[in-house]
């Protein structure tokens, strides 16, 4: 998978998970502020995964990459907006789950 596509995927997984956790699933209270904060979480996650992708030990296993996405997203969420630790953990779990679901359903094109 090329690095630009990897960054886009990790950004979208983290952004989606963060925004859903911030509004607690109620999209009727969604604001631009929520989208901006979720964007920061997504950017931090995508940047961290990009940096890790240059390592020779970068995981090629979809389960390990999903776990890594969740952990990085949790820490990115803590950095972008310090809140209750439970929300940060839920955001990380959601991003990891999204990463696993997407890796199982989306076919990679060469």
Structure class: mainly alpha
* N- and C-termini, Cα separation: 8 Å
Describe the sheet with the most strands.
Answer: none
Mean pLDDT: 92
* Number of discrete helical segments: 4
Task: Tell me, briefly, the overall form.
Answer: globular
Series of secondary-structure elements, N-terminal to C-terminal = HHHH
Query: How many structural domains in the coordinates?
Result: 1
Radius of gyration: 13 Å
| Unreliable spans | none
Total E-strand runs: 0
Share in helix:
over 70%
Strand composition percent: under 5%
Verbal overview:
The chain is 75% helix and 0% strand. It is built from 4 helices and no strands. The protein has 110 residues and is an all-alpha fold. The chain has one domain. The radius of gyration is 13 Å and the shape is globular.
